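Fresh eyes needed here. Kindly weigh in on this sequence plus structure tokens:
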Amino acid sequence: MSTTTTAARAAPGRTRRQVRQRRRRSRRLRSAALRRVGWARTVHRRTTRRRQLVATAGLVALAGLAALGMVLTPTWVVPAVMVFVLLLGVFTLRPVGMAVLGVVVLGLVVGLHVTRERTSDPGVFVALALGAVSAFAFVRNRSRLGIQGAMSDIMLVDLRDRLVAHGRIPELPAGWRVDSVVRSANAEAFSGDFVVAARGRNGSLLEIVLVDVSGKGQEAGVRSLLLSGAFGGLLGAMPTEAFLPAANKYLLEQAWPEGFATAVHLAVRLDTGTFRVSTAGHPPAVHVHRGSGLIETLDTSGGPALGVVVAPVFAVHEGVLEHGDTVMLYTDGLVEVPGADVELGIDRLMGAAERFISTRSGGADAVLAGVRAGEDDDRGLVLVHRD
């Protein structure tokens, strides 16, 4: 009895000691990890500072060489060469270094003028001063984002490529094809239109969403990237009827000043050809019937744009894609013309579909070219074919 009692008393003691030992070990590991992180940050800051000092010194020396060349070979080295030095600073320096370089460049040109080693017209001083101020403002704005020089352009290119990657159509079984094209307004790098696709239910269901984000250009492109990632996570992870309400809720939570988007959601059973399509403030989808030649607009009107209403109701159209049929999804950039009825634009689109899709003489690019939509708006078009 006494042995059991002693063991029972000793066990909790050992347990408490083990807990204390684990806590001490955890604190030591956490402290060591924090020290490593702090050390890595310190090394990074020192390395960055050293690189900036070297870059600044190198460009200041280059400016000095340019000034010497302006004195020794005035025919070949003109004051405008200092603009090139400032341009190099934009690509490599941070605000402090850029400010130093700008002052040095202006000081050298003014000094040469004052000492009459190389006189310059007043316009040269004005141009260089404006160039130095503009370069400093540009570098400072990029520095606020934590990036410098050409890295910001690389980041924007990466964002654009990620947006394109989100729109890749998954591999489809034999007898199914998807043809899509997205063009940005005025050939800008970013588009407010994007496509997201996924296959679910063990590959038997294809879901495609075509979205038109409010706005144009880079700002709309950044919102498109965020939404495409979020919508890609929602697509296929929930019942098809729950997608648009979930997307609407997500958009409302962002609280963007222009936080709305239109969308059309298509879900197709790849084994039977049955489909359902619903829209949120988006132009109606079009069903091209191969057998009868009928081109039908699918009425799903009434659903509001995403990010506008808290509890929206979205109309649904259900149908069957027979062999040879095509469902066409598109954004308003293909059918809206300022001062004209949107129905006329839809009729024009259906005419292009009849010329190229019904006759199988062209795909999405041919339809887009046939519509002859203006270049001042983003345009997206998706064709889902069943062969």
